[in-house]
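Standup notes
- DV: blocked on the single-chain target, sequence here:
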Amino acid sequence: MTETPVPQGATQAAAQSAAQDVLEAGSRTAEARTLIDILFATEARHPNALALEDQSGTVSYRQLRHLVDEQALALSQAGVRRGDTVGIRIPSGTRELYVSILATLRVGAAYVPVDADDPEERAHLVFSEARVVGVIGRGGVFEFRPAVDDVMLRQRMLPPEEDLTLAHTHRTLPRGSDDAWVIFTSGSTGVPKGVAVSHRSAAAFVDAEAGLFLRADPIGPADRVLAGLSVAFDASCEEMWLAWRNGACLVSAPRSLVRSGVDLGPWLIAHGITIVSTVPTLAALWPEEALERVRLLIFGGEACPPELADRLQARGREVWNTYGPTEATVVACAALLDGSAPIRIGLPLDGWDLAVVDSAGARVAEGETGELIIGEWASPATSTRPRTPRSTPRTPASAGRAPTGAATSCASRRPASSSPAAPTTRSSSADVASSSARSRQRCARCRASPVPPLSCSAPPPGTRCSWATSHSSTGHPPSTAARRPCA
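- DV (later): unblocked, structure below
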């Protein structure tokens, strides 16, 4: 029997694909859940452990749960419903800030943070683009935006499964498909762009990191996590949930100390900080003794200088370099910096798939430069290029190389994760695409609504979109999960 010869090109492609198998972790995911599921599970395990500390004192997980439930009920009674977006603009480093974020999640809404020190113009732009129904400001006080009909919002029906006065709602609110947050980019390269991340994606990220860092001695109630980043920066989500996923205490630093940089070093010692997630520029300002009690140091947001990594490595301390576009749910890959290899962005977190490809969409050979894709990759055997979200342009950042166990640096495309195992995000002001042109494409009924839907586009002539139909029959907008594009 004569064997059919395998074409050389096919053999080479198979070898290149095998060399990148280490970049596929999309099938390794924890059970799907929400951020509120995570918080409640931690409260059940460690009710008396400290959950939050600010200048006014500390609260335990049991006390935090009470504060969150109390404020969430107030939001619900004010008219906030599941699927809404709620602005957050509270001074950094305060208890009210974190309780308000959690209360917004608890009621099933997505929070849209703007730094309290940002100009009014940015706050107006972000809140308008995200179509928030209202804003929680100083002191945790919620106010409707002038642009919305607050009377109509208060009169929207409250389904029994979303009524926080009923005991069973902790099992039904929010849902994994609901958005958890909408965080906007700085706008340094153009108009700020909002990225909406679902609870399912956010929880997958939180659980993936919990299984990655400090495996020999996991984060727990004895740890204290620095909260030093603005909540308008997506890395702040990592700070918060490194604590709340693992029963540790989130310790908020005064904003003035964070801005000074140098003065934050002694504060870390005085407050017994053991877990820090920060940018290399800030860490470079701290003397080595400032990190003497820190056992986990995570870098992200910018390139990590090798000399800084070398200086901050110490016995008993893990130092990690992380990478991920905002669209990829904060972090997509990470590398342990132990001095044994050059600085890399590492391997994917559980639940993420990576691929380094050439201009034709084929995986490149080991050591070759290409473009890094985060999400779902389609082999050129079935597609001539990697699959990307509809109408989503490429957003190159820098060159990437095929891994020798890990990638070095990368360019990114927005995630195309239609696989159930892969965390998903939507790149937009709050759902898919947010622009004046998109707004004009909404159907007349949706444009006239006091709470315009985020996923409505112009329906076929002579028809009405599914959102408008549902709105007219129930008297209130449906949940985010029920909304779908009408064209």
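- Follow-up: DSSP finds 15 helices and 19 strands in the chain.
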